[in-house]
Write a structure and sequence with these properties.
With 199 residues, the protein is an alpha/beta fold. The protein has two domains: 2-78, Ribonuclease Z/Hydroxyacylglutathione hydrolase-like (Metallo-beta-lactamase, Chain A, 4-Layer Sandwich), CATH 3.60.15; 83-184, no CATH class. It has seven helices and seven strands. The strands form two sheets. A five-stranded mixed beta sheet has the order 1-2-3-4-5. It has a two-stranded antiparallel sheet with strand order 6-7.
Length: 199
């Protein structure tokens, strides 16, 4: 068994190469950045990279998985829940899987809207960090978050709304086959509050 760690500082992350010298086969897990170090280590240890695996959707960096898989002639593997949803560009399913879609409960004339807890925890964490860091680095997201907070939304609910906005942008990019262009993003405004009308 051969195992190598790749420690990254910007962003902070760890990638792995592991394999069997006897079978000359290796897999790389969660690669990012330059693909050359992975290819070099595989060559130095006499192994061919057969699989490149992304264990989850990354919120803080762009995966090098597909690039490495193409360079090594390897099979690219993404965790099962995300693959079909991303392939189908299914916004609603990905929104529910990541815990962004709320749950509505009704009893008689009373309705309750609450956070969805039955979801993929790792994807929910990815959405959380995606939204949180965007409110620090992206002016439009920061403005949207503060507008939601001023309207009375809790910190968690406001972050879920920010993540939901990013998810809509992501689905539009995947559908159109385009890359992110911040100049095309219009400032987001929170949805108006529903007014209670007395009869």
């Amino acid at each position: 068994m051969i195992l190598r760690q790749f420690l990254h500082s910007d962003p902070v992350a760890i990638s792995y190469l592991f394999g069997c010298g006897g079978r000359a086969a290796a897999a790389v897990v969660d690669p990012l950045g330059d693909t050359a170090p992975y290819l070099r280590i595989a060559d130095e240890t006499g192994m061919r990279i057969r699989y490149v695996i992304d264990t989850h959707l990354h919120a803080d960096h762009i995966s090098a998985g597909r690039t490495l898989a193409q360079a090594a002639g390897a099979e690219y593997v993404l965790f099962a829940e995300a693959a079909a949803i991303l392939r189908l560009r299914d916004y609603g399913a990905l929104r529910a899987l990541g815990g962004l879609a709320p749950i509505t409960k009704q009893s008689g004339k009373r309705r309750y809207v609450q956070m969805r807890r039955a979801c993929n925890g790792r994807l929910r964490d990815a959405f959380y960090h995606w939204a949180r860091t965007s409110t620090l680095a992206d002016p439009a997201s920061k403005s949207y978050y503060h507008a939601l907070r001023q309207r009375g939304h809790s910190h968690g609910r406001a972050l879920r709304s920010v993540a939901d906005r990013w998810l809509r942008i992501l689905m539009a990019m995947l559908t159109a086959g385009t890359i992110y262009d911040p100049t095309r993003i219009r400032p987001a405004a929170p949805a108006p509050l529903a007014l209670a009308v007395a009869s």
